[in-house]
Amino acid sequence: MNQEKSLLDQLERILPLVEKPGRYVGGEYNSVVKNWEEVSTKIALVFPDIYDIGLSNLGLQILYENINQREDCLAERAYSPWQDMEDFLRKNKIPLYSLETKAALRDFDVLGFTLPYETLYTNTLNLLNLSQIPIHSEQRGMEFPLIVAGGHATYNPEPMALFIDAFLIGEGEDILLEVIDAYKIWKKNDRSKHELLLKISSIDGVYVPSLYEPQYNSDGTFLNMKIKNKSVPKKVTKRIMGKLPYAPTRFIVPSISVVHNRIAVEIMRGCTRGCRFCHAGMINRPIRERTVQEIIQTIETGLQNTGFEEVALLSLSSSDYTNVLGLVDEISNKFAGKNLTISLPSLRIDSFSVDLMEKLKGSRQGGFTLAPEAASERMRKIINKPISEEMLLTTAFEIFKRGWHTLKLYFMIGHPSETLEDVAEIAALCKKVLAVGVKAIGRRAKVHAGVSTFVPKPHTPFQWVACDQQESIRQKQNLLREQLKGPGLKFNWTDPKETMMEAWLSRGDRRLAQVIETAWKNGAKFDAWQDFKNYDTWIQAFSEANLDPDFYVHRERSIDEVFPWDHIHPGVKKTYLKTEYLNSLSLQLRGDCREQCYACGITQTFNHLRKEDPGIVWKCPNLSSKRSKNELSIPN
Amino acid sequence: MNYRYRINYSKKEGMRYTSNLDIHKMWERTFRRAKLPLAYSQGFHPQPKIQQASPLPLGFLSDYEIVDFFLDQEMDLSILINTLRNSLPSGIVVNSIIQVDLLEPALQTQTIASEYHIYFLEEFDIKIIVERIQELKSKENINRIRRGKSYDLRPLIIDLEIKQEDPCFLKMFLKSKDNATGRPEEVLSELNIPVEFTRIIRKKIILANELVVNK
Questions:
Q1: Is the Cβ pair A309, B29 closer than 8 Å?
Q2: Are residue B96 and residue B128 in the same domain, yes or no?
Q3: Of the partner residues A17, A255, A305, the one whose CB lies closest to the CB of residue B18
Q4: Within-domain flag for A263
Q5: How does pLDDT run across B71-123, given as a tens digit for each residue?
Q6: CA atoms within 13 A on the CB side of A469
Q7: In CA terms, which of A195, A315, A635, B127 is 20 to 30 Å from A526?
Q8: pTM of the model as a whole
């Protein structure tokens, strides 16, 4: 307690000198402050980016509520301090602390990092270092917290394997609690850290990288993953919840303005569209929905608990929610006239989506967003996102006609085998959409094209393909900049150097750990931020490690290559991904798998869960035993 | 028909790092959590009608902040205060609530002056500060530049005084009118006291119609 007082005294002198000091003080409505002395197991949930971005992360909110519901545990939060605060912490030798009780992170039992994207890796090392915790797993004895990590990026855990004690693969609701239970027993028995790691490696979905050893071929490609202890699983299968668990409603209400100040309700998990570039669409299967009633109840309770003025209904593809019309009708009945903004992102390109948005009145002050992703017929077949241009133009006309002045269109460049002609079609399409807008409402119509660059991700049909070259990306961006000039048009793009950083981390192997460490030591952090120019630091780190970034980024993998992430099983089979890759090469489209099963493997992997609870709402078609056989016999 | 209420509250702990704009949001959300029948402004983007007396700079504590809000229904004051207390974030403490005349002018135009107490986090030679205060008070003008604009700080200072209590503190009495607000950190700068070595607490806001503020 005395120590805390002196920390508060120090902070009182530091905080007036930093930008947005409210990031570093906690005390938000719905934050949970338990008595440190009375709770046996202490967990810090860490988002390795700034407070403004991390606060509204739904995954951490779920875990925060789950853990704090237990009397024997407490969960507190920490985020990356911005550079100004970091300088003061280092200068005053203050270890990074949690927001709730201001306890040093190194005094917790478990630190749980969420890694939703790869460009947080250097921040993770920086955060450990700021906490005065050794960054290498092997250097951390029992006196340091157990460091675990989860989130989308950890489906390829290898680049961070030397730094994280255990990865929790898949949906975190149950698995984190199971790890905590194992930790509690271990702590009582006072055994070695190795024993703890061995123990938790037997929990489904836990990957303890120090118990595995990667082996490589002479050409640098991956050979296989050697198991260092017979008791650990050869493949670690992700965890899922058979039925979507209780949705959080006690959202932390920030006392300062952050990026998303809102209630977030996950209306469904997973996606059945099968876009071949989409990481989230592959790793979050199967599709599970919440009922309309549950969603409405969550919103009502959430509003009551927070006083927020905005609600976001989250999913990967809102229009695919079975009763989306019923949901929207119910919401507009219940919450009309309450001065609420309700957002429903990820809508399909059809006029039905415009009807839906129109029913959610009050949310019209923003623009309308659609994501065609590609503009040419050929590219759409390659990425498996079929939309008709006619439908897009009809939808756009409706959007402008019904009162929206700005239409945002999201595209991606750098898809496999893309040419400048394909890219030119993006510009042409934007102009056609603008023309439709001008026809509908005159010169007020605006089209914003957000064009990001595709990065091949592990566990997707495009895990074999080469990422586009920087010169080629620049050429494409120049072409778009040239052609998307003029009144009513706006064009946003991603710096190709950022794309490269994401690309080498996404499909990296364990050797990248040294590159990450060197880059961080030489000052790289906040790699997701354009404020920090880290690219040259990274290139230098590659050269110090005698590794070639192009090997990871621009190399087209052979069809039978073994990947450094193959021992992590997302439920979807590699043979299915391979089939889909080959389909893309032959421009074969595949439909929505709610209609027809394409045997991705998810129902086989989690058949036991589906059987356990026959009432659960999976949207995979029910397969007769005959169809099941059929499913198995689809060739690789 | 609207009903107008005035809250006197304290701003404590980490809440001192919540800006004026965000304090406004904090009240909106608190009122909604408390399910108060808030009156909204007319127009395309209706906003709850909330008025703050005088913005408190980031990092300052306060024992005496004032906010007015408007309801569609009249409420019993004791019920109101209890409902609010259950809905407040930590660091905001309601001291009192009164009902005020709907026709009173906007709260910010009623504000005349503020009293601040400044505590020292480091050892300062109080004698030197006392001398500087005398010097400042004897000046006719104190010309300063703030955000590129020059202005005279002197007429904004009503009184400055070192209180030799335990602990010793600096009492400042500054004008806080809509268009002429004396800022404590500007005075501290004239006294050569770095703001990060102080704890500044607003102790009082004086309104034009003092009769309305029942103490």
A1: yes
A2: no
A3: A255
A4: no
A5: 999 999 999 999 999 999 999 999 999 999 999 999 999 999 999 999 999 98
A6: 5
A7: A315
A8: 0.94
